[in-house]
């Protein structure tokens, strides 16, 4: 008989599901998975929360998670989207921050619950490491990214926006 | 929750959601024609956020207030069932009008969500916690332009002042009191439109002062939207917005 599925098996499988916009970043490292429960009978329920309320990728990720978990020996899987534990940018894991940087995005600065202009200026350039940068616009190609310019390496770059 | 409280909650959620949906649509009209690329993207992003907030609020109405699903609420209601204020319905016109409206509305919207983080209706308090963080970006954007533009050319100052004078009475309509103010306060769901209006006034006045702009203190608020009476601009907007959906409401997307 097969050993029962545990929450830890689910978390491991979830690490295979990635953000469609940043293909190396998993939903776990992005910090959008807020709850995983497994019953004795093997019914799995997962709760996720969007980075931004208007994120068009959330349904895609919801489907991708359902599909991935169905590959495991589970009885059923239910994936809910909820704001019960709202996402904020401090939820991105250290591993997630490293992946963002390797992918050419500045990770969001850690915040203490308030986002103010100084936090958005002087972002560290993910290409050369300089802080001689300026904010071009807080609105980028997706809701969660802002656009910056590095004066040291003359390169425009994106930051994953801090969100309180 | 008893029937009166439920009606009060429904009224609050619906007017908020409708404001977001309609202003989201108006903001999206800048896509592709913004005065500069950054503003094009800014208004598109803000529009997308607004639709996200509308969706989340319609979802609460569906889950807790017995209302139809979000798409039906957004796309299948006649104008008379909408509770949005007139400010969000007005045609976009020029960029100065769009910018001043964005400033006046989003400042109120941010303060409203900040207040709602203390709501006793927990699903709304949690959503507010989320949304207020996003709107910070909207008010930061609006306030920066409102502070700077009037210090540019005389034409810029004149345009922003004219837009402000035209829109201010409509902005006061955001705070049209409902018949449920007392119930909402008594149950700790929302502190009410008057508290919101006072905080909003304080905040916009401080930005307007730095910008050298003035408001007309004798302006009379334009009410009616919260009761289902709308300008002639809402109907064509709703028709355009729901054109595709209405062709086949059962279609799978």
Task: Kindly describe this structure.
By secondary structure, chain A is of the alpha/beta class. Chain A is built from 5 helices and 9 strands, in the order αββαββαβαβαβββ. Chain A has 2 domains: 75 residues, GMP Synthetase, Chain A, domain 3 (2-Layer Sandwich); 57 residues, no CATH class. In chain A, the strands form 3 sheets. Chain A has a 4-stranded mixed sheet. Chain B is mainly alpha-helical and 253 residues long. Chain B has one domain: Ferritin. Chain B is globular. Classes of the chains: A alpha/beta (164), B mainly alpha (253).
Task: Draw up the topology in text.
The complex is a heterodimer of chains A (164) and B (253).
Chain A: H1 7-14, E1 18-19, E2 22-26, H2 27-30, E3 33-38, E4 43-48, H3 58-70, E5 76-81, H4 94-102, E6 105-106, H5 117-120, E7 133-137, E8 145-150, E9 155-160
Parallel strand pairs in A: 4-5, 6-9
Antiparallel strand pairs in A: 1-2, 3-4, 7-8, 8-9
Chain B: H1 3-28, H2 37-64, H3 70-75, H4 86-89, H5 95-116, H6 122-148, H7 154-172, H8 181-186, H9 193-211, H10 234-247
Helix pairs in contact in B: 1-2, 2-6, 5-6, 5-7, 5-9, 6-9
Features:
heterodimer, A: 164 residues, alpha/beta, B: 253 residues, mainly alpha, Ferritin, 10 helices, 68% helix, globular
Task: Give the structure's gist in a few sentences.
The complex is a heterodimer of chains A (164) and B (253). With 164 residues, chain A is of the alpha/beta class.
């Amino acid at each position: 008989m097969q050993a029962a599925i545990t929450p830890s098996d689910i978390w491991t499988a979830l690490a295979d599901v990635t953000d469609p916009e940043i293909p190396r970043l998993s939903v776990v490292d992005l910090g959008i998975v807020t709850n995983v429960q497994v019953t004795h009978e093997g019914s799995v329920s997962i709760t996720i929360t969007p980075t931004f309320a208007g994120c068009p990728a959330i349904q895609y990720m919801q489907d991708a998670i359902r599909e991935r978990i169905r590959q495991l020996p589970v009885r059923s899987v239910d994936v809910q989207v909820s704001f019960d534990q709202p996402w904020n940018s401090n939820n991105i894991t250290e591993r997630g921050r490293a992946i963002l940087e390797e992918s050419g995005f500045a990770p969001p600065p850690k915040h203490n619950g308030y986002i103010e202009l100084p936090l958005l200026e002087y972002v560290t350039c993910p290409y050369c490491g300089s802080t001689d940068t300026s904010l071009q616009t807080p609105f980028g190609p997706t809701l969660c990214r802002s656009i910056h310019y590095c004066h040291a390496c003359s390169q425009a770059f994106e930051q994953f926006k801090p969100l309180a | 929750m008893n029937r009166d409280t439920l009606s009060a909650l429904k009224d609050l959620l619906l007017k908020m959601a409708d404001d977001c949906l309609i202003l989201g649509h108006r903001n999206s009209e800048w896509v592709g024609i913004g005065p500069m690329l950054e503003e094009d993207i800014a208004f598109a992003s803000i529009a997308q956020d607004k639709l996200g907030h509308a969706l989340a609020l319609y979802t609460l109405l569906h889950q807790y207030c017995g209302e139809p699903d979000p798409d039906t609420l957004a796309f299948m209601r006649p104008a008379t069932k909408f509770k949005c204020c007139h400010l969000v319905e007005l045609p976009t016109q020029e960029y100065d009008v769009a910018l001043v409206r964005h400033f006046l509305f989003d400042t109120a919207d941010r303060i409203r969500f900040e207040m709602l983080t203390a709501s006793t209706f927990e699903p709304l308090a949690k959503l507010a916690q989320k949304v207020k963080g996003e709107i910070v970006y909207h008010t930061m954007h609006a306030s920066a332009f409102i502070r700077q533009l009037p210090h540019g050319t005389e034409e810029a100052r004149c345009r922003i002042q004219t837009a402000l004078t035209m829109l201010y009475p409509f902005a006061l309509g955001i705070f049209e009191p409902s018949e449920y103010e007392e119930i909402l306060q008594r149950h700790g769901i929302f502190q009410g439109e008057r508290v919101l209006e006072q905080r909003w006034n304080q905040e916009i006045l401080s930005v307007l002062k730095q910008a050298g702009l003035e408001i007309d203190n004798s302006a009379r608020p334009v009410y009616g939207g919260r009761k289902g009476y709308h300008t002639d601009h809402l109907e064509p907007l709703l028709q355009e917005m729901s054109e595709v959906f209405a062709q086949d409401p059962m279609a799978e997307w």
